[in-house]
Each structure stands twice: as structure tokens, then as C-alpha cells.
Amino acid sequence: MTPNLTFICHPIIAQATPAANGLKEILGSPPVMMVTMVVMFYFLMIRPQQRQRKEMAARIASLQSGDKVVTSSGIHGIVHNVKEQTVIVKVAEGTMLEFDKSAISTVHKKDSSSTK
To answer: Could you tell me which residues come within 8 angstroms of residue 59 by beta carbon, excluding any fewer than 6 positions away?
Structure first.
């Protein structure tokens, strides 16, 4: 380009860039980034955890005799009796342990359609 043409085109290019820079300034500003991070944190971390907690509470509320459970300490057993706050778990023949319902970490429902 000749120097005269550069002198004419430069103001036109300069006028087109503020719109793009304005968008960058809005999206790049610290308050907008903080809000974006909080929203992402909520949808990626908090909501799935709340959903899992609700599902586990529903499973514990529907415990029945015969369900297989795993406690938070890693003990596997079969539910023998369900009380208001506790669960009696059969861990071996003739061995029953009583746990708080909050100690149950995994519930496997008994098969209602047992095999032949």
C-alpha cells in the first residue's frame, strides 16, 4: 500500500475494532468472570451432588429386609431388620450388626424376580 492509502484506511480499521474490544472488555471483566465461575461451579459440582444425596436418601428410606447393603466402613451384608434410626445387618451366619441409617453408603435392592 502506498502511504496515502494507509493514511485513509487506518481510521476505518480503527473504527471497526472498538466493537470487538468492547465485547472483550465486557466478557473479560473480573465481575463477569466471577459470576460465570460461580454459575459453572453450581451446575458442575453442587447440583449433581444434591441429586446424588436425594437419590441415596430415597434408597435408605425404602430399605427392606433382604436388601444387600455396604456400609461406609466397607462392611457388606444383608438387611435383617429396619428400625426408625438404625438398620440391623446380617454380615455372616449368626452375626448381626446394628448400624445407623446414615452409615449405609450403597444399597442393592433384592431381586423380586429370583432365578429359577
So the answer is: 107
Cα dihedral across residues 49, 54, 60, 66: positive or negative? negative
Residue range of the domain that includes 31: 1-61
Query: Are 3 and 24 in the same domain?
Result: yes
Number of domains in the chain: 2
Question: Would residue 116 count as lying in a domain?
Answer: no
Cβ burial, residue 89 (10 Å; 0-12/13-18/19+): buried
DSSP helix/strand/coil, 76: strand
CATH number at residue 90: 2.30.30
Asked whether residue 105 carries a pLDDT value surpassing 50, the answer given is yes
- Cα dihedral across residues 70, 108, 55, 64: positive or negative: negative
Q: Please give the model's pTM, rounded to 2 decimal places.
A: 0.58
